[in-house]
Amino acid sequence: MKALRVAAWALLVVVCLIAVCPDFFSPYSPSRQYRDLPYAAPGRYHGASPRWLVHGEPYRWLGVVPTSLRLVAVPEPGRIFLLGTDEFGRDWYSRLCHGASVSLLLAPAAALLSLLFAVAIGGWAGYQGGWIDVLVMRASEVFIVLPWFYVVVALRAALPLTLGSTATLFTVFALLATLGCATPARLFRGLVLSLKTGEFVIAARAAGAGGPHIFRCHLLPFLLQAAWTQFLVSVPAYIVTEVTLSFLGLGVAEPTPTWGGMLVPLQQYVVLTSYPWMFAPAVAVVVVCMALQIVAPPFRQSPDAVTMPV
User: What's the fold here for domain 96-305?
Assistant: First the structure.
C-alpha cells in the first residue's frame, strides 16, 4: 500500500509539472494543424527523428518569459505524434498537456477556496454556538439538497454572452466553491464542537485568551489534517465538473484545449469506434482522480485523544 501511495504521489507531481509547463513537455503548439494528417495514429511520420531538450516552436513560459526550449522536438518536415492527432491534424498529446493547465489548476483552486469558506464558516458556527450555529446549519442544509449539476448549468446559462469564456469559467467555479463549502463546513463545525470543551481550551479561556486567539492557536491546528483530507477528496469532484461543463460546451471554448472539450469528438460514432487514442483525456481524468483518492489520508480524530498542541 505504501508503494502504491508513493507511485500515486509521483504521478501527481509529474502531472502538476506538465500542467504548469505544458509547452515544455509538448512537442507542438496545441493549435498547430497538420491538415494532411487528420486522425493520424500515434507514431512517426516523414522520417521523424526526435531530439531531446532542443529549441522548437517559441512560446512564453508561464505566459511571461519568452523561450523555445522543449523536452522533445522534431526537425521539419518530420512529425511525431505520441497520441495521434484529431480531425484537424492537431497533436493530441500536446493538447492533452495544455488541457491539464485548465483542468488541474482551476479545480484545486476552487477546492481550496471552498475549504477556506468551510473552515471559516464551520469553525465560527461551532465556536460561537447559539443562533449563529443554527443559522449556519440551516443555510448549509439548503446548499446540500441543491442539485449541483443543474444549478451550475443554470448559473452558466444565466451569465451574459459578452463575458469571455475564461472569465465565465472562473465565475462558475467561484460559485461552485461557494456551493461546495456546505458539507465540509458541517464537518469542521462538529470538530470544533468536540474540541472547544477540551481542557486546554478551557485553560486558555481561563487565562484570558480571546476567541480569535483560541481558535487560531488551539483549534485550527486540529482542523488542518481534516482540511487536507477534504482537499484531496474534493478535487476530483471539481475536475469532473470542469470536464462535464466543457464536454457540454459550457466551459472554455475552442481552440483552448481542456480535457472535457477534448472529449467532444467522441460524440461521433465513427470517432468513438475507430480512433482509440481519442480516449486519452478520459483516461487521464480517471487516473488523476484515482491517484488523488489513493493519496488522501484517512482522517482519524477522536475527541478523547485530544492533546495540548505544542
Answer: MetI-like fold (1.10.3720)
